[in-house]
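Box 3.1. Reading complex inputs
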Amino acid sequence: MSRRSLSGRNAVRFFSSNSVPIMFILIIAVCVPIVGFSPAFLLNEIVTRFSRNAFLILSLLIPIMAGMGLNFGMTLGAMAAEIALIFTSDWQIWGIPGVVLAMIISIPISTVLGLLCGKILNAARGREMITSYIISFFMNGVYQLVVLYMMGSIIPIVHNNIKLPRGYGIRSSVDLTRIRKCLDNVLAVNIGGVRIPLLTVAIIVLMCLVIVWFRRTKLGQDMRAVGQDMEVARAAGINVERTRLISIVISTVLAGIGMVIYLQNMGDMATYSSHSQIGMFCIAALLVGGASVDRASIGNVFLGVILFHTMFILAPAAGAKITGNEVIGEYFRVFVSYGVITIALIMYETKKRREKAGMGELLAAAQREEEKKHA
Amino acid sequence: MSNQAPLLEMKNIRKNFFGNQVLEDINLTMQKGEVLGLVGENGAGKSTLMKILFGMNEIQETGGYEGEILLNGEKVTFNSPFDALAHGIGMVHQEFSLIPGFTATENILLNREPQKKSVMSEIFGDRLNLINRKNMETQAQTAIDKMGMHIDRHMIINGMPVGHKQFTEIARELSKEQLQLLILDEPTAVLTEQEAQALLASIRIMSEHGIAVIFITHRLQEILDVCDTVVVMRDGVLVQNVPAAKTSIPEITRWMVGRNVSTSQSDGRPVPETETVMKIEHLWVDMPGETVRDVCLDVRQGEILGIGGLAGQGKLGIPNGIMGLYASGGSVTFEGESVPLNQPRNCLDRQLAFVSEDRRGVGLLLDESLEWNIAFPAMQIHDKFLKPMLGGLIKWRDEKAIEQVTQKYIDELQIRCTSPNQKAKELSGGNQQKVCLAKAFALEPKFLFVSEPTRGIDVGAKALVLKALQKFNRESGVTIVMISSELEELRQICDRIAIVSGGRIAGILPATEDSERFGELMISQVI
């Protein structure tokens, strides 16, 4: 085999395994000149959205490591964060104390939800993704029951500005103006017109370090083992179910904290819809970064969050420029995120199938080789 | 030595699976550092015996065993492999038990990684201990050195040649400090000649270190090369226990195959000298665990051809590959026409039929009635049992014809059932097998593959199944290729028997040939 064909094959492999990020880079490259945003504006937007969203996406890494695939269970953590923020708003604890308190309150709620989700996922091995997706729909119903009917009637809610006029239930939007960007504004610096929220970025970097450290612990090692082969791990005496459960709980708790960071940046909470698409957008972002169902790294998170949000900023404007209609752009966002998830799932399956077929080809090649020798 | 208890004593070990006696009064004694070679045909009871010794769960689940096991003179009972491991018994199974994306080091010390405490682990418990990589590497290297083999401990399992995977497994067992007895279940099956030699050398080194080894293999030369004692099992009985130095390969083969009384062919018709009906050339099949390599075989019109051989040598891959259930290549001609591979429907359309060894998975619609099971393929493939309605626009099921044909086969094959509407999953294994045959017969094929037709069924049903096959062949003139691990049953009904070894045809002999000759072929190219 000549060297050139080998490097050619490597290039093909590189493109086929990174086709999603490459596709996104191409679309963005086309959109940027059409839209004509100034670089400073674009960078500002990207940095804002990066600091808003990155933590949430990092929460997806640990279940992937434990072989549980893309975890829609993070939606549960988002719900926990919203409940926590409703409480802190009602108690009128604002600013950084409010944010920290909301994180603390979200932890026990996320833990309970995560345990529940993990238990169910242990029973639905190999179908974690779809199961967690359906659980998130189910828990959305429970969430509505709690927030729409119990809050204000059974659970005490004092302030009328977050209650519905009928006296119980929470309004469809909770005003978080008084905690808006309270983390982002601490230690924020301005570099060439781009505002960088150093504290939030520091928190994200810290989280990355924690994940790196976690991989090197015994628990992290066990999760990697369980993720690759449950039966072998079990035969070596690792408690597979418990390990998987822990990975989901950690992910849900981190998602709760991530959602508080997300909402403090937004400064406004859509009580009944904030959580519903966050799982899908985070998963889409991770996949855009080149992750797959069984492999994801911190690098995938960073690349994904930047590409996906750049797309988000550009798409509505590009849509408006091309068709004269903003709605098309909005539609395009949702279309793209579902599309990305579908493509990633199809590619994952074809890759597995191709690996399987490869064995047969090897066998045939070995036989041809031998025949040649005999001839 | 006399005042010291032997390392291992197994006394009067008996085991039955649901009334089927698979082990009878096995007595075995091993000394420290002894290397014992355990041989026997498939189904002789080697694996069951080792599973008992290693405390495998399936033994408890099927009612435990009788007899006792003494380790260093003390009676032990193992309820799980972990108990056995704690007592210093290690086992390397035929299937690898390795994490594919981990390095050799990580696998060798899987779940036994050296750890260091940290602040976080003080708070949240030991599972947050950091792994001590440096220590881990040294421990892994020590284990590898102990084995006396060189493998790269940084290599990822996925990228390793099979042999190195095997050595990683062995190193993992050796890294356990308390190891006294190592069971190697066909460790050389996946090794190249050179690697196998290296493994034998490392077995000698282990033995010098005082570790006793039970070595299971089909390669008899290896047994003679490395073992102190040879133990031969046949049909659940320990037939021979002799020092390796005092025996030879032909002798062991004879003990393994046993039954010096030869030829049990029932009607003793001469081998048909008819023309070739199916020609198989350079067939390869990628069936996991039953890989077929470069098989060339001619099947004669109207004969019953047996395909025998040891488990894992590829005999099952042949029908599964031709019928399109596993990826395959090469060329197959049937009645002078080439049969395209990897297209199951095409084979069926040419009136080839297949009774799979995987009764419950491939053979039956478990939740459907007997009638459906028997009639469905014929209906699906040859439009049998269908009545055209509205000038052939709609085809209606002919319930009456289905009922008749089902009843016919129930009587003919003596299928024990409450009614033709009973669900297939409610039948016993033997009766399920008969339904599978009925299904194939109802297709009225020209050519029939039957794979392991008597596996896991009782003696009575076995005789019936074999008789039914023979009758089908004689009366309808259908060519049958029967694949079986049991040489004796092949010899009962086949005209010729091909033996597969190492994925290739090692030879074809008339069924009347001595069983010893077949035994030699079986182990001739074992890989």
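In summary: Chain B has four domains: 8-88+178-257, 98-160, 261-351+445-527, 364-444.
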